[in-house]
Amino acid sequence: WSMDKQGFPAQCTLGVVTSFSKMECIFHEKQEGSLCAQHCLNALLQGEYFTAVDLASFAQQLDEAERERMAEGGTTTAEYQHFLQQPSSNMDDSGFFSIQVINRALEVWCLELVPVTSQEYLETSEHPTQEQAFICNFREHWLSIRKLGYQWFNLNSLLIGPELISDTYLSLFLAQLQQEGYSIYSVRGTLPECEADGILRITPAIQLERPKLISEVTKQKEKEDGRSSNVEGRSSQEEDPDLAEALRISRQENELDDRSLQEALRLSMQGYLENVPQEEQHHIPQSPGASNSGQQQQQPQPPTQLPPSHST
Questions:
Q1: 36 flagged as catalytic
Q2: What is the reported pTM?
Q3: Can you tell me the mean pLDDT for 241-254?
Q4: Is the terminal CB of the chain with fewer CB neighbours within 10 Å at N or C?
Q5: What is the pLDDT of residues 291-303, one digit of tens each?
Q6: Catalytic site residue 40?
């Protein structure tokens, strides 16, 4: 490690971290499909510990245990037959997994979840900052909040990266999540050791800008790509003089064709009028080019009575 003026490591010689303001040492999975439960667990444990296949296996085990309990009342009962026809309550095709699956996965590491609204939590927790991690769920989305070193981080997979949370803001953040409808659980037990925790104990993270949502970045990129394609189209014409000249000649030819067509229509109408008796010419509508240049074409007058409207 090289040291800065305050005595903190400025650079990791192993290349793990080169800029602490960007917090590269923190493990963070970005959202893929609806696999937020997998991302939540791996962010909590700070590594690629679980896959969707692993969680699906836990879900199947839970489904089988539920089936066995229902079968105890008889496999021919209407309740059991109805249960068999229902989809799994522990997972679905989108990749969502239930709280029971999360609990089963954490049992592998001798960890358990305690709801922050439970009596156990209220009796044992003095302040959120005294905890080590939280798991939050709203509808079909899971996210984890964990202390690394001496700092708290929002490891939401919908963000482009971890979000640094101050101790003062942690309580407000949790209260805001509860107000939005999130169920919040404190993670109890001993979390596995991770590299980020050791690094951040020595060098606290610095975040100059809060991470954006992945959806916001994607929309911004699409807008920039659209503008870039338009600029490239214009610049290609400017860089290719032959193309620009061809486009100019093509526009001129189109304008000439339009004028030639208008002149042909005018001459055709003029020749036709010469062969029509004078008293019948006022029944023939004139084109703009058929009138004499010194005469002003009369504008059509609006009807004196509006036609009845048709209801839809």
A1: yes
A2: 0.66
A3: 68
A4: C
A5: 444 444 444 444 4
A6: no
pLDDT at 72 over 50: yes
Active-site position among 25, 36, 40, 136: 36
CA distances from 277 to 281, 283, 288, 297 (A): 7, 11, 21, 21
Choosing from 42, 90, 137, 156, the catalytic residue is 156
Cβ-based burial of 285 (10 A; exposed 0-12, middle 13-18, buried ≥19): exposed
**Mean pLDDT, the chain, whole residue set:** 79
Structure token digits, residue 97? 């997994």
Selected catalytic residue, list 25, 39, 90, 141: 141
Look at 149 and 7; give whichever has higher pLDDT: 149
pLDDT recorded at residue 83: 85
- Catalytic residue list contains 141: yes
- All residues at 6 or more sequence positions from 190 whose CB lies less than 8 Å from its CB, including other chains: 110, 111
pLDDT of 239 over the 90 cut: no
